[in-house]
What does this fold into?
Amino acid sequence: MEKVILGNHAVSYGALVSRVQTIAAYPITPQTLIVERLSEMVADGDLDAIFTKVESEHSALASTIGSSSVGARAFTATSSQGLALMHEMIHWAAGARLPIVLANVNRAMAPGWNIWTDQNDSLSCRDTGWMQVYCQNNQEVLDSIIMGYKVSEQVLLPTMVSLDAFVLSHTAENVDIPDIKLVDKYLPPYKLKIKMDVDDPHSFGALSSPENYMEFRYKMQEAMYKAEDIIIKEGKEFERIFGRKYGMVEEYRTEGAEIILVVSATIASTARASIDSLRAKGIKIGLLRIRVFRPFPVKDVARVLLNKKKAIVIDRNISYGKSGIFFDEIKGAFYNIEGEKPKIFGYIAGLGGRDVTPEAIFDMVNDAMRKDKPEKDIIWSGVKL
Amino acid sequence: MVGGETMSKLTIPQEEIMSSGHLGCQGCGGTLAMRYMLKVFGRKTMLAVPACCWSVIDGPWPYSTVSVPLFHTAFETAAIAASGIKSGLDALGGKEDINVIAWAGDGGTFDIGIQAISGAAERNDNILYVVYDNEAYMNTGIQRSSATPWGSWTTTTPVNSPKNRPKKDLVEILAAHRVPYAATASIAYPEDLVKKFEKAKNTEGFKLIHVFAPCPTGWKMPPDLTVKVARLAVQTRIFPVYEVENGVTYKLNFNPKKFVPVDEYLKLQGRFRHLKEDGYKFIQKNVEYEWELLKKKVETFK
Amino acid sequence: MKHDKKKVEIKCASNMPDMTASLGSMASNKTASWRNLRPEIDESKCIKCFICWKFCPDAAIDFINENTPPKINYDYCKGCGICATECPTKCIEMVEE
It folds into this structure.
């Protein structure tokens, strides 16, 4: 069914058609519309789930973990401060190997209070063992929730689906809400093999000494390796059933390109138009959108960027003391791989929701084209000096 | 009857659900509490256990003591992890007969866990919360908690600066939330404790039982005194044993005609050894004061 | 209820469960070595009240039947002495190991 809906409501519908069984969430701007719509869906009987109105985000994820541990399909949603507050449990969910899906509205971290978009909140979780997806439109948001459960329930690691504050969360777009019976064909009921079960009692998460902790963590990484193949496989299956294509990355006009602009989330939508303009001027430039950030798409990044002249990475985030995070991870991904490495330029733009306009993108691209190589790891875009 | 038959001579159910071989100290009050709880609730029970002595007592991976599903969870999350387990079971359906119990020490209850308890109590989540109170952060080496009584030595309230605040009144906090059932109990009176577990088992909504569970290691006393000291705590009225229904109806379970002076209780424990006569008097006065207050509450909605 | 006393054999990552799920019982951990003193029940004085059985934190006193004195399980008894202290007839003596 085609509907014009906000990104936040795309999350709600994604959870609805995924037949989530428990929701535990705490309100925070700009996520509130997600849980408000879900409350209505539950109250109206459209969604057969138990909604716990918890008293904090830390409890939201702890409750979700408890529900998932007994074999219920569990969902939660949050943003920035809330995601930071539940950070302890973010580690716990991944370490407990629970297939939870969390929708995070990418919002800047305080202080000062800032409700607009940047990615530091979710990227602060990059080391925790969660798979991470960054969405460029509301359709992808809805679809990624469904695929999130499909992949997580095989890999046994949780998935964080991120959408930009206001640019997606509060922007209405055309979205095809798939028929729930079609989703049932793609996403079967959740069956956890070892779980909290009175007929097969185990303890979970007991003291794990230096003698065995590393092996559990090794297994988490093994799951991440497996995850890449499963994400690709399930993306293809999703395309087969629903007609929409998703992978680890997305390329636009990269054939014959000498320069690749690397972006994520909604900057990609703006950038596509910029690529068209630049191509029209004869500049051999293409776009690489990083969709899945964990597991990091090393193979795709190497494939697209090796033997190119330049890569221009736009980060809507920063790791203080180092550089933009996508820039940093891309550079690192290459190091041991054979092939001509491009000159890689790292721009930081759009922090705290500052608009990344087509003009800003042109400025960044022109700046990189003018230089032989980057003189610094961080080039600030549009900062009033 | 779940949990095993009660033989006519045994005053509590016979079957042992908790195995021996656990890592509790000699004379551990907290393990007695668990042993009794599992006898009442049986195998159709799921536990959420935050950081506390029982995180270690149950045994390191790959072993467990309790023979029921046990989810180890983060320190402050006992109440909400249990709530999440319960909502997961409710969502799956057909599992209404499974008891979900948050099992925590005083640290994870009175201090860092109080928010989650307040939330679960206010929502009236259908779980039982049991705190085995050994009156300090024993698992991490005897640091003070808000359940530590006035005057006690702990590693963070050394003898020249002992705890100078009263013990936080947990059951009062729960009564203020108007939960269906909140009660105190002592491992020295297992029949009363078992009755309270039974009552909780048959009550819908949020229940909390605050179990007095002495710790020989932390209280600096010989391990054979655990039960005697728990009994004296009740007989001196230092730890009154009572129940509150719906936050307003109070019932005293132990109201003997004569009370033992607090000296008998305090002198057995090394953690009170530094107390002088004025300390003893202060404690005795406060015990009597609090007792009068409690009696008034009992009278209010008799 | 019988608790499994078997030790768990774990050699490497490939035979560990994905999640930190327990695989055996702590009944495999015989805590006898913890004690310095062992309780000995003088069965002639035992009135079979089972108070000792009731108060053992380690469930290390076995109830046989109503007419038989309980038996200390020396595989697990940690020698805390609660049974001796609580016994109403003082028929339990704590003896040096």
Remarks:
- The interface with chain B takes residues 1, 3, 8, 10, 20, 22-31, 34-35, 48-50, 53-55, 57-60, 63, 66, 73, 75-76, 78-82, 84-86, 94 of chain C (CB under 8 Å).
